[in-house]
Design brief:
The chain is about 25% helix and about 20% strand. The chain has helices at about 35-40, 45, 90-100, 120-125, 185-200, 255-270, 285-295, 320-335, 350-360, 360-370, 400-405, 455-470, 470-475, and strands at about 15-20, 60, 65, 80, 105-110, 140, 160-165, 170, 205-210, 275-280, 305-310, 340, 375-380, 480-485, 490-495, 500-505, 510-515, 520, 530-535, 535-540, 545-550. The two termini are about 45 Å apart. It binds alpha-D-glucopyranose and calcium ion. The site of alpha-D-glucopyranose (GLC) has 10 residues, from loops.
Length: about 550
């Protein structure tokens, strides 16, 4: 195991995280699927430790554990080993060593709410009502008259209950029936989770992304989830997905979930004070409830370090909605630390959402700049730094079980998981040396000319990461909203005597913003479409973006 020297306990507050979806990053052995050796070979692109590369500080790896891949690795059949598709444990150790030698940190994804149904624990559990693991998953008696135990639904479609002949009982699955939920109320299960966490801590990881961190506990009385009124506007707009019409307050988001998080945090801290956690808080359809819950998960020092929600991952990305999400979070988060992303492996590519929403690619570039100016740790999804677009999947190409279940109303998540386009002029866009890739390697990257290096979006992201690094106020300064209307979003970031003013024009017309005479243009960088100071006003061109610095120290 490799330990980084000189790390501050809260390195993660000033870090920029990059999410890698291992199946799609780089396929070193040319079998059509990305792998760990592939990631190791491309680290210099992310950060070579000498000031070159994109300049990110940490990588979050989506799951690479042994898995039958029903949900592409989010169905784990051995938590302590690497799936042969991705490589070996040695490859993982090499990746950690290579990353650490470049000062890059590694976060791994822990899927602790459910396992694969072929995990030996579930195989044993399902075999009888009295085996040693009989109570490791959530088993419920078959109600009379053929009814289901309650109205809980699977996120991926249909009831969350699957009948098992061997036991004559139902088991619960929040996601696929091949992903049975653990019974976290069983102390043996919690001890098994501790072992998994400790194993990866000892491998030298610097953090964990916790999959579905609000799903571990469920209502012990199995009460029905209430339905939202028909007028309710869902946060995640997925056509036809029945799950979204329920408030799943009994199947997840339970108060006891805090105990699960405490146990996870204690285990991690026993290994190292430097290891961080990011929880995924998913599936809540009411913005206020979602931000309240996510904030409460990061209060104090016993729960998570960070949590991300889907509040910026849906279709509503405009000045007002972003301002509301940031404002409400600031109000709720107290001593907790925010964490932001505009893209991940579960949602439509932000480039495509941005264009659908505002019709301009310039607006997309501004989202990346904004993300790197927010208070809170930013996560960049692989390819977003190139402007990768959502791939429009055809029925015959579908891989994602979520898409297969709801096609064509909701096409699933394949469109944001396509191979990384390393070189548009090579076979499979340089993802491998020619073997057909698991999803089409035909990204349309309109912003890319000859390769990643000439890509203006990449250049902008790299420069903005540098600006963030050079400005402590951007990393850990306070946040104060100044303006939020449909055209302009502006805020200040302040740390000690450093003050920055960030303004973004969301419209296709010039905008004038009163800023007073405190400010001068940022000497560090003139972004494309930079605004101009004119007396007390800042003139922002269409889709303009400016960072101003205070003339005088506070
Ligand atoms: C999380 C993951 C998603 C996965 C699901 C079930 O939401 O991000 O990809 O399908 O959990 O594990
Ligand atoms: Ca491979």
């Amino acid at each position: 195991m490799t330990i980084l020297s000189d790390i501050s306990a809260d390195w993660w507050k000033s870090a920029v995280i990059y999410q890698v979806y291992p199946r799609s990053f780089y396929d070193a052995n040319n079998d059509g699927i990305g792998d760990l050796k592939g990631i190791s070979s491309k680290l210099d692109y992310l950060n070579d430790g000498k000031g070159n590369g994109l300049g990110v500080d940490a990588i979050w790896l989506s799951p690479f554990y042994k898995s039958p891949m029903k949900d592409f690795g989010y169905d784990v059949s051995d938590y302590l080993d690497v799936d042969p598709i991705f490589g070996t444990l040695d490859d993982f150790e090499e990746l950690v060593a290579q990353a650490h030698s470049r000062d890059l940190k590694i976060l791994v994804d822990l899927v602790l709410n459910h396992s694969s149904d072929i995990h030996p624990w579930f195989q044993e559990s399902r075999s009888s009502r009295d085996n040693p693991k009989a109570d490791w998953y959530l088993w419920v008696e078959k109600p009379e008259h053929g009814a289901l135990p309650n109205n809980w639904l699977s996120v991926f479609g249909g009831p969350a209950w699957e009948y098992c002949e061997e036991r004559g009982q139902y088991y619960y699955h929040s996601f696929l029936k091949e992903q049975p939920d653990f019974n976290w109320y069983n102390p043996e299960v919690r001890a098994a989770m501790e072992e998994i966490i400790t194993f990866w801590c000892r491998k030298g990881v610097d953090g964990f992304r916790l999959d579905t961190a609000n799903f571990y506990a469920h209502d012990q009385q199995l009460r029905d989830n209430p339905k939202y009124p028909a007028s309710h506007k869902a946060l995640e707009e997925r056509d036809g997905v029945e799950y979204d019409s329920f408030n799943s307050c009994y199947s997840k988001d339970r108060p006891e979930n805090f105990d699960c998080l405490k146990m996870i945090r204690r285990t991690i801290e026993t290994c190292s004070p430097h290891i961080t956690t990011i929880g995924e808080i998913g599936g809540i359809q009411d913005l206020d409830d979602l931000l309240k819950l996510a904030s409460s998960y990061v209060h104090g020092s016993e729960h998570l370090h960070m949590a991300y929600t889907f509040s910026l991952l849906g279709s509503r990305i405009n000045s007002m909605d972003i301002a509301v999400v940031l404002g409400k979070t600031e109000k709720e988060i107290g001593d907790g630390w925010p964490c932001w992303s505009f893209g991940n492996h579960d949602c439509v590519r932000v480039r495509t959402r941005a264009e659908n929403s505002m019709g301009m690619v310039d607006f997309y570039q501004n989202l990346m700049l904004l993300l790197l100016c927010f208070r809170g740790t930013p996560i960049i999804y692989y390819g977003d730094e190139l402007g990768m677009e959502e791939y429009r999947i055809n029925k015959e190409e579908l891989q994602d079980p979520f898409g297969i279940a709801y096609w064509p109303d909701y096409p699933g998540r394949d469109g944001c998981r396509t191979p990384f386009p390393w070189d548009l002029h090579r076979a499979n866009q340089g993802f491998n040396s020619g073997q057909k890739s698991w999803l089409p390697a035909t990204s349309s990257v309109a912003l890319m000319k000859n390769g990643i290096i000439d890509n203006p979006m990449h250049e902008l992201t790299r420069e903005m990461i540098n600006v963030r690094r050079s400005q402590p106020a951007l990393q850990t300064g306070d946040y104060n909203q100044i303006a939020a209307n449909p055209s302009v979003f502006a805020f200040q970031r302040t740390l000690d005597n450093e003050r920055l003013f960030i303004a973004c024009n969301f419209s296709d017309s010039e905008q004038e913003l009163f800023v007073g005479d405190d400010w001068q243009e940022n000497p560090l960088k003139h972004f494309t479409r930079n605004g101009e100071l004119d007396g007390l006003l800042l003139n922002l061109p269409p889709y303009g973006f400016s960072i101003l610095v205070a003339k005088q120290l506070l």
